[in-house]
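Re-run with default settings, no changes from the original entry. Doing this only to confirm the output is reproducible before filing.
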Amino acid sequence: MKEDCFCSASADVGKEMIFTNVQIILADRILTGMRLRVECGILSALEVDEPGTLPANGKNVRVVDCEGMYLAPGFVDQHCHGGAGGPFMTNPRAATAYHLSHGTTSVMATFCPLPTMAEMRDGVSAIADFYFSDDPLTAAVSGIHMEGPFLSPDFGASKEWSVAPDVETALELQRLARGMRSIWSVAPELSGCFEACRALRTSGEKYLPRFLVGHSAASYEEIMALLPLGLGAATHCTNATGYSIYPTRFGGTREFGVDDTVWLTDAISAEVIPDYYGMHVRPKMLELILKIKGDERVIIVTDCTIDCIGSANTVPDAVPAEFNTDQLDVRFNRLGLSGSQLTMDRAAANMRRHTGASLVSIFRMAALNAARFIGIDDTVGSIEVGKRANLVLVDEDINLHGVWLDGHEVKRSDGCM
């Protein structure tokens, strides 16, 4: 990723920027009566917003009147397979541009299992080739999320393409990623998973990989065994996580499974996919997860699979008739749910509508928590002096009114924001 090379066709290139008449969403509160200054793509100062003290718009300064709306950190999506134009594994530029236009200024380009190992290798290589290219859009890509191939063959929309874990395959895929930051979703119960994770963790990479439990029916003990190797999150909590173990050892009782382990363990954050109707995670389940984990250990993701293999727009008969299909933001395949059509602005808005969480909490879950898990919170994820000027301007309902990447305004293709 070229963090300092993003440029746009806007008139902002090379200008100092001042955001005024704004409510600034910090990690712990909303700041009013202040303005934000940006220099060279970096947040340089928070200043008292006194009337009559602003410089005039000119050659070297641009003043942005935010009209009383909310300025927040750009979204960080650690689980996104693609967007309009194609998946990251075949068209990473189009996928990056699509989500950037919806406010995702840091994305982990997400891998998924494919029918052959050759296709999987090519997909990782395509992401790496883009990441290390001179394309200015690479400033919005933070690394790769390997959602597979070491997943349970019993769970998930691509379960038939899961691969048994082995050290050689793990290290080959890691080499193809060429040193990108990486996070890996794995099923800890699979034979060889611990050894593969240990090999990835001790291979000498500059950025140590981290792990998520996902597409799994692992026991508490199997999950805990990976904590010392960097397991710290759960992939789309309550989805493809083995549900309640059945049959139970004692009739009429409940066993302790993946989701229960995630809820119990403070060291494990929970990804959630907040779609409009709560099809991935029921609204009351979202409330429960947020109550148990707190807003510091919930990570909002899109799991977007638009134009990805095995994912379609066809709506199955199981979808309730009262659901307005125009508002459906999920995807299906022959096995059922297969990701979403979400962008992070809509996922955040859905989470706010379902749970009533404050804007401070929403942006903690939609930016800072993922940045911390990935290991990039020193530069993104919150509005702090010294961090990159990755910003979104939203209203109370998280409708998007502006996006800035490294201080440069992002233009949508339709000319509207």
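Residues 359-374 form the longest helix (16 residues). Confidence is low (pLDDT under 50) at residues 1-11.
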